[in-house]
Design goal:
Elements: E1 3-8, H1 16-26, E2 30-35, H2 45-52, H3 69-76, E3 79-85, H4 87-94, H5 101-108, E4 113-117, H6 121-125, H7 127-138, E5 142-143, E6 147-150, E7 156-160, H8 164-174, E8 185-190, E9 195-196, E10 202-203, H9 210-221, E11 225-230, E12 242-245, H10 249-259, E13 265-268, E14 275-277, E15 297-299, H11 303-310, E16 316-323, H12 327-338, E17 342-347, E18 359-366, E19 371-378, H13 379-399
Parallel strand pairs: 1-2, 1-3, 3-4, 4-5, 8-11, 8-13, 11-12, 13-16, 16-17
Antiparallel strand pairs: 6-7, 9-10, 14-15, 17-18, 18-19
The structure holds flavin mononucleotide.
Flavin mononucleotide (FMN) binds next to helix 4.
Length: 400
């Protein structure tokens, strides 16, 4: 797991560093926060501790802390982000001062550094601050912002800290991460649903969740904020993803409808039950005294169809079609009926592909009639291909 050391200095935007820490955590990073003494007057270290799950370092000589925190934090970091960066810390960095834990760590680290300056307009305009920033840029320090707008001091102008989502993007770019889905929110569904018959039995299916989980991980790797709505599966929950666990098709529908509202992309990889028992027996159904058992089933809601109809402008909807015959025709028909943009069609009758397997052989069927038949490949690879296609669809939507 990559480690981000976030240095929080004593600017009013220190509260935004809480959201920034959360965003790094959601992207699967280990986050360690160093606060300057002045910053602790603006936000409490306990907030960062709760968000990151790590102790927050303020003093170099704190009882119980590592004896040489400035060195261990400097070495742990894959990237040091200073947000907000006050005029003071910028000046100290430019001149090599090391009089507190943050400035000393910044001097000791070999990791790349990203700073997000934030200050009053006149402090930012000051020749000293301008010169200090030039020195830092010349040394290869990455600078993001500041932006123009209304400042906390009541004045208007340049000096606002760049929003956390953009600082995160800049950080991901420095770390060489795929940022094609940065700033996008995506929803992925995974696994099968369980329709209860009685307190101990249910109607389920063979979906393992592997495809949906691979899609969620691949989206996160491309920089997206990911919500994964999952039926019961045996796959380990991935880090950096909002995971919502559901059981029945009705639970899945409720969560998808709620969570999809502000998403740019919805990928329905879950195998949602098509039918559910008309009624649920409150007691376990006994075998004794029965010749047989007939279950009456009713169709469940058509989640993909509802999504296709009620989607917000520009939202991309991707469905999965698991077929045992007439793969391409059935997938194209399903795509038209549901109003999806892309259908991932897989022939689940091929041995070693589809349900519960690590590989999948699929064809991608597009709304404009294109069909891309793919070879058998690991689910992670197929997931990356699906996102390649989704990125292209998002870009063509943006261009319109
Ligand atoms: C409420 C408040 C808000 C402040 N906001 C900023 C700011 O946004 N940017 C800045 O450079 N200094 C700001 N300052 C001044 C710094 O806190 C001060 O220069 C301090 O010495 C910075 O120390 P540090 O860089 O070690 O945190 C603020 C001071 C106060 C009292």
């Amino acid at each position: 797991m990559q480690c981000i050391v976030i240095g929080v200095s004593g600017g009013i935007a220190a509260y935004k560093a809480v959201e920034l820490s959360r965003q790094f955590i959601l992207h699967g990073f280990d986050v360690k926060v160093i606060m300057t003494e002045h910053a602790t007057h603006l936000v409490g270290p306990a907030t960062f501790r709760a968000i990151t799950g790590n102790n927050v370092s303020v003093s170099m000589f704190a009882e119980g802390s590592a004896p040489m925190q400035h060195i261990s934090l400097a070495r742990d970091a894959d990237l040091v982000v200073v947000a907000p960066a006050t005029a003071n810390i910028i000046a100290k960095m430019a001149h090599g001062l090391a009089d507190d834990l943050l400035s000393t760590t910044l001097l000791a680290t070999r990791a790349p550094i990203l700073i997000a300056p934030a200050m009053n307009l006149d402090m930012y305009r000051h020749t000293a601050t301008r010169a200090n920033l030039e020195i830092l840029r010349g040394r290869g320090v990455n600078v993001v912002g500041p932006e123009s707008g209304s400042l906390a001091c009541g004045e208007e102008g340049e000096g606002r800290m760049t929003e956390p989502a953009r600082i995160l993007d800049a950080a991901l770019e420095i770390l060489g991460h795929d940022t094609r889905l940065s700033g996008r929110k995506v929803l992925v569904t995974a696994g099968g649903t369980r329709e209860p018959i009685d307190p101990v039995r249910y109607i389920g299916n063979r979906s393992s969740g592997k495809m949906g989980y691979a899609l969620a991980v691949a989206a996160r790797h491309a920089g997206a904020r990911v919500t994964l709505i999952s039926g019961p599966v045996s796959v380990e929950p991935p880090g950096g993803i909002e995971l919502i666990e559901v059981e029945t098709a009705a639970d899945m529908r409720r969560e998808v409808m709620e969570k999809s509202k502000d998403c740019d992309v919805v990928v329905m990889a879950a195998a949602v039950a098509d039918f559910t028992p008309v009624s649920l027996s409150e007691e376990k159904i006994k075998k004794e005294g029965r010749e047989g058992l007939t279950l009456e089933l009713v169709p469940t809601s058509d989640i993909l169809g509802e999504l296709g109809k009620d989607r917000r402008r520009g939202q991309i909807v991707v469905g999965f079609a698991a077929e045992t015959e007439g793969l391409l025709e059935n997938a194209a028909k399903k795509l038209r009926e549901k109003g999806a943009d892309l259908m991932v069609a897989n022939d689940v009758s091929i041995p070693g592909s589809g349900f519960d397997s690590d590989n999948n052989k699929a064809a991608l069927v597009f709304a404009d009639g294109r069909v891309l038949e793919l070879d058998m490949m690991p689910k992670g690879e197929l997931a990356a291909k699906v996102w390649d296609m989704v990125v292209a669809l998002l870009e063509s939507n943006d261009a319109q």
